[in-house]
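User: Can you fold this complex?
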Amino acid sequence: MTTSGWRRGVAGVALTALTAVGAVTGCSAADGPAGGAGGAYTVWDPYPQFAGGSDWEKLLQSCGADAGVTVRRTGYDTTDLTNKALLAAQQGNSPDVLIVDNPVISTLAQAGALTSADETKLDTSASAPNLLGAGQLDGKAYGVPIGANTLALWYNKDLLGQAGVDVASIKDWPSLTAALAKVKGAGKKGITFSAIGTEEGSFQFLPWFWGAGAQLTALDSPPAVSALTLWTDWLTRGYAPNSVINNTQTTSWQEFAGGDYAFAENGTWQRANAEKLDFAYGIIPVPASAGGTAPAPTGGEFVALPVQRDTGRYDVSTKLVTCLTSPDNLLKTDTTLSYVAPVAAVQQTQVTADPELKVWVDAVNAAKGRTGDNLGTKYPKIPEQLWTAVQGALSGAKSPQAALSAAQDAAAAATR
Amino acid sequence: MSSTRGGRWTAWAFLAPVTVYLLACYAYPLYRNVELSLRRYTVRSFVSGGAPFAGLDNYRDVVTHPTFGPALAHTAVFTAVSLLCQFTLGLALAVFFHRHFPLSRTLRALFLVPWLLPLIVSASTWSWLLNSEAGVVNAALGALGLDPVNWLTSPRWSLVSVIVANIWIGIPFNLVVLHSGLQAIPTDVYEAAALDGASGSQRFWRITFPLLRPVSAITLLLGLIYTLKVFDIIWIMTRGGPTDSSTTFATWSYRLGFGSLLPEFGPGAAVGNLLIVVALIGGLSYVRAQRRQRW
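Assistant: Here's the predicted assembly.
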């Protein structure tokens, strides 16, 4: 081969290598719908499950018609949406209305990608303060909650009956663990949850973490260690399956739906699936360590208005948001999504229509924003350490104390 | 004179599409990735621009990160073991299918199935098979009277599990390429060897293996590049966990960039660039070897 041949070879190989790793960098081509088209307003939401003719789509169109514009809607996978929203903000083609998971709001707001409610005259007064908190940064609200969900314990009534467990006796951690022991003694499986190494895993751990009295500012405090020890002990004693380490909330629900598990920690959004269970089920709040209800983290999405170059668009966008979050429409939306409404009056209507929802409404009212504990934008750095610690302890790689100490050191370094 | 100039213009015109394509789809993303890795990006500066130049800070952060050592070791083990097993098994199967026998075509086609399946399907199937509670593998172990193994959820086994799945997916590629390489070896060489009384293993080691060298080299190079960037299988099966025990550079780069609520684009891009460098080194040594062979 000649020298130029060698060079050509090098270039060829370099390009091959680039192709190979190109996937890692992600293509940054502008592919999002631009917000510039005349009477069309774009909406992005994390509800890809709703197709063209769904009630949700119809609601968006009717809100658009009221405001005299057409609405173009795109549904994204929820984890994908954060990245899409950031890239769109970078390229100046953000959607007019963005519906996004609540802990992302403070991050997007910090990125300067969202307008504050003061700027757009968006009315946030109707929303419950503990829900609205997740969308606040430096005292300003950057969106309105469209619906709320949270975690509780689902239980299999038939199975508990066979094992002789009275669900009313479960008031705190020791009584819950005793119930699990009884279930295991009866040859069944105790409890399933999701401890996967993503945000989902820390979301599921937080009720126990907070229920022990721990705070996200001190991951290695004795209450925090006691919460992780509770989970670890369940695994070592066989009350919870080892598969929880890789369970998403969906796979955990599938385990519960199989009928072998007495309890499952899962959310409001499973209510539609619960109708399909072939056994009787019930719901109790997650107990705190010494009794009472543990604060579960609030879940659910916010409607926000991303920053636009053409500030004249905010008027119509605000109208769209106001329409989406009006009591009647909230009721419709939250019923389709199996969510609890973020507004007290609508919650009452929901409970009147479906008394089963009472447990969830109470749980949502007791719930706590993840960005609380005075963390704000420091929050996103913390769950990664928390889920790493949970995985470390559950897989037996580290003791709960050692895992949480390492997590606290890493979190302190990351948020410094 | 004018005709040569016209010819040159035509030549450029023919070259333009591929040049534009290469610049837009390869050079620019690479440039952006290098730039990302050299600046201190926060979400704010990612959106509004003006991220300060940070030199090699991101690389320094990445190299001193507690995940770096394990990720490097896992990437090396994952790549080396995958390549070795895929190549050995692929070659064995290629030699096996080279001797035509009834149904050999059908069987060979069946071996391609792992390659044709979308990765999300094969990875999800593997994670069901290996599930600690309800997996088929543990049920089989139980039937044999053995204790169940936490394939995906114990730090000791998670890397093994993803390697096994990756080998299964990689065999068809090696089989196809090596099989076509075998067909290019002239049969009269084998006939001559048979006349000289060469045994089966002698024929393999003295004829097949040496004559297959060029094809083997390119198979291994493509395998290296492909295996280094394997992301989907690991992410779907273990998310790189538990606690980094199956994290490779590819999954780490993704986790830094997109895996948490607050993206760290700089360090994520830095890890991605390290991968490019490794793939580049592999490619260059291939070109070198080729060059030596030709001379």
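Residues 3-25 of chain A form the longest helix (23 residues). Chain A has a mean pLDDT of 83.
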